[in-house]
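Folding follows sequence. Below is one example:
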Amino acid sequence: MATKSKPAAKPAAKPAAKAAAKPAAKKPAPKAKPAAKPAAKKPVVPKGSKYTCSVCGMVVSVDTVCGCVETCDLICCEKQMKLKKA
């Protein structure tokens, strides 16, 4: 039984003329800036803050700060509640 064999792949020709014509100019690598340390996240809304609804007057007090996002929107009567000043 005769088996067919594939012809050997030819090596790719390298363009030596381009590399020799232009010498490579080495540029100094830019200095890496030191990484800034992430600041400890403070809760945006501190515990004990109170929000009021401008429509119905309901008051919401913050008992637990979640810290999952930068701001939380509290909605009542289809309007955003406002931070009650002390």
The longest helix spans residues 16-21. The domain at 44-86 is CATH 2.20.28.100 (Rubrerythrin, domain 2). The chain has a mean pLDDT of 74. The first strand starts at residue 50 and ends at 52.
